[in-house]
Structures are given as structure tokens and as C-alpha cells.
Prior knowledge:
alpha+beta, Immunoglobulin-like, 4 domains, 34 strands, transmembrane, transmembrane helix, signal, NEAT domain-containing protein, NEAT_dom_sf
Amino acid sequence: MKKLLKITLALMMAxxxxxxxxxxxxxxxxxxxxxxxxxxxxxxxxxxxxxxxxQKAFAGAFGDTLEVTxxxxxxxxAVATLQNMIxxxxxxxxANVLTIANGTTxxxxxxxxxxxxGGETLEVEVPEKISFELPQLDENNSTVLxxxxxxxxxxxxxxxxxxxxxxxxxxxxxxxxxxxEYVLEDGTYDVPVNVLKENSDDQSMAAQAVESAQITxxxxxxxxxxxxxxxxxxxxxxxxxxxxYQLKDGTYKEATVIEEEDGHPKKVQFKLDENKELTNVxxxxxxxxxxxxxxxxLKLDGLTKVDPTPETPKxxxxxxxxxxxxxxxxxxxxxxxVALWNATSDKESMAAxxxxxxxxxIVKDGKATMYLSTKEMSFGSIKASLxxxxxxxxxxxxKNHGATIxxxxxQGNPTLWAFELPHENEYINVMMNPHVAMMGNMDLAxxxxxxxxxxxxxxxKTELEPNTKKxxxxxxxNKDQTANKENQINENxxxxxxxxxxxxxxxxxxxxxxxxxGFILRKKHEA
Length: 527
């Protein structure tokens, strides 16, 4: 019975080999033409022996996927992660793939192995991963491989290698490109950079926003510095508001802004979570809270150092130290020029006239508080004053970061506000509401521009003195008040001069009249 089973199995495997060999005659290399490394699902691995128990066991011998690498010359190399097989033919027989034609064992493991029909089952060292040259695929994405299996060697080859054939079918439709993990030498490098679309290798529109890239490597940790620039989208000029990059766990983290220009990031920096060529990123434009997804491509092959002594990449502690580096060298009172700018464009806000151009910053125990004075503004024929003032943008929880009203005028309108500086960048996002019904009584977005080049240390006072609270307002309005007084004086002088002129004229006419009356009466008397 055992001999008959051997003969039957051998004939079936031989027949299967002939049939599959005929099929390979028409082999077509219809895919995998692009160099790269791919993870490709194994659609089927079918033994030449059509015995259900053998086919079932062999089906999972290569696992769920192969890692396939296509070289520049078109050579295709695959790596199979091998699985222990159980052939159930009344009894369970344990089997393992030992070799694949034109293959090399990369690693080994210990698995159960049955020494042929009726043989004992032992734990032996067998291949875990085998790399092999992948033959051309036919129109069904299939190819035939010659392998040896320990159980078959004992059962059919009396302990010697007994090659058997399997038909491997790959699911190319669901292949995924894998990225090479780079190991880089310490140093600083200029890196060719591109931005690709999320789901294709076409260039993304966001590529216009990236001017250049540089990486700093230390202990194989890679810190990327991107230099950004303005871009044109649908005929409009736009700048990046912020950029996020994806971590290994799929979450996104905002890149650190290390240099700004006109309120927009000029340089951003982040550490690669994986040293690979492609990193998923999100770019945010025009105050939008929705990021445009793309893939940042850093070409890490064949780099040339630009600085043999690398700058130490910034870790969290370094960033904290940077954050603690302040424009304010000591506690006290400072003066600085300010202006109200449009939320997205580099021009004055329509409410720019509402704030005075000088502001105070009082620093106490390292905490900086700005005191901003405001005044009446005009919208055409409408006059109004700011009634609400918040720190933050529309995309933030600005309602919980309102400025404190310090002073009001006789009509109850706020004239002096205080708030803690959220940072020391040139622009601060703000929201305002002048409570104008015709404008919808809505919160308006703007940016407070702080000209730190005018920052001046005034005194060591760390409290706002009551008798100086209005200094800034007076400084900005004294000229107007002086001009008004001069106009009033001139007007008064003009009025008085007019009054005096009228009296003098009246007296002159009165005297002339009396003289004429006297002359007439005298003539009558003489007559």
C-alpha cells in the first residue's frame, strides 16, 4: 500500500510538472518593470501533487506575502518567510521547505519535522527566510519553482534531496512598494528634494513650496531642515502656514518652525521617524485647518557631506532651551512698535486705526505681558471701538484666551488691554469684535505685528503704574490734541477779531450819523 502511494504521488507530481512547464512557455514579464522593493501578496502556492492534503499544506509554505526587489537591470529577487507545514493524511506529518532553486538561506529557526511516512517527528533547524531569483511571470502572474521539502526527501528520496515543483501565483494588484531603510554616516548633507502626490509618483503642487532640504545625521538619527518659499496655486500666491509629518504609528506631528518671514514659516525642522526616502506630510495654506497630504521625497543615495562636523540634532531638551531663549534680557518695562495686519495678506487690517502704534511689554519673573492701547476707528461713516479682543486664530480655541480690559473711556469703550505674549514671533494671531451690527457683530481675524527691531528697555518697573497707564495713548494723541487746541485758539481768535471789527464799524457809523444829523439841524436853523 505504501509503495503504491509512492508511485501514485510520483506520477501525479511528474504530470503536474509537465503541465505547468508547458504553461511557462508562454511566460510574459507583464509587471514589476520598475526598480524598487515591493511587498506582494501570495495569491496561491500549489503543489504539483493534486492530493488535497498536500496542496492544503503547501499552500501556506511561503506565508502571506513575498518581499520582491527589482534591480535596475531588471533582475527580480524574492524573499520568502517560510512556514511549518502539516500534511494530514490520516496522521499528521510535519514538513518544512529546505531549498528553493537558485536560492540562499538568509536565516534559520527550529521547527518540527517528520522523517517520512511512519517516521518519528523531531525538532530540527530549518530555513526561516530564503532569498531566490524569481523567474518570469506568465499572464496569470504565475511561475514554477523547484523546491525541496524535508518530509518529501525522506518519503520519496530515501533521505536524499527530492526536488518537487510548486506553482507560485502573485497578487500584483495589491502589491505595495517598500522603502529601503538607510544607514547614514554622521554629518550634514544637502539632499535632493521633491514633493509627490499622495497616491502617485507625479509631482505635487506643493513641490513649489519647498526650496531646498538639508539633513543632519548623528548616530543614524536624521534631522531634516526644509527651506520653504511662496508658491502659486490657481493663479494666487500662497505661503505655507505649517507642515506636519507622519510618524511610524500613522499619526502626524507638526514640524518645528526655526525661521519666519512675514508671519509664515521660512524654515522648518523635524526628525525622521524612519530613515526612508518617502515621508507622508501635510501642508496647510491660507489659514485652512485641513492639510493637503503629499509625500516628501528625500533622495538619500550617494550624498556628499557639506559639513564634516555635524551640528547636534535638536532633541526635546534642545528645543526647550531654544524656547527659553528670550528677546527680553531682563525683567522690567519695554516699549515696542506694533501694527494690526490682515490675517492672511501682508497688508494693514481694515481695523488698523483702532490700535496705537506704541505698546508696553512688562516682564516679571520671565513672563511677558503686553499692554495695548486702542482708540475709536472708522468704517466709512461708522465709528466704533474694539469691544472684544482675543489671542488666537479661527482654528484655535481663541474664546478662552481673551485679553483683559484694563481701562475704558467715558463712554465705556475699552482703551487699554493686557495679555500674556503667547510667543516671541513677529506676528500674533488675534480675533476682534467692534460690535458693529451692520457688520454682523462678528469676530474678525487679524495679526498683531510686533516690530522687535524697535524693542527698547524703558525701566526696571515690573508693574503698570496707575499714572502711566495712559502714556502710550497720550503719546499717540498729543499731536492731535495740540493741533485741535491750536485750531480752537485760531477759531476763537478769528471770532473775537470779527466781533471787534463789527463794534468798531458800528461806532464809526454812529459817529458819522450824529455828525450828519447835527449838520442838517444847523442848516435848518440858519435858514
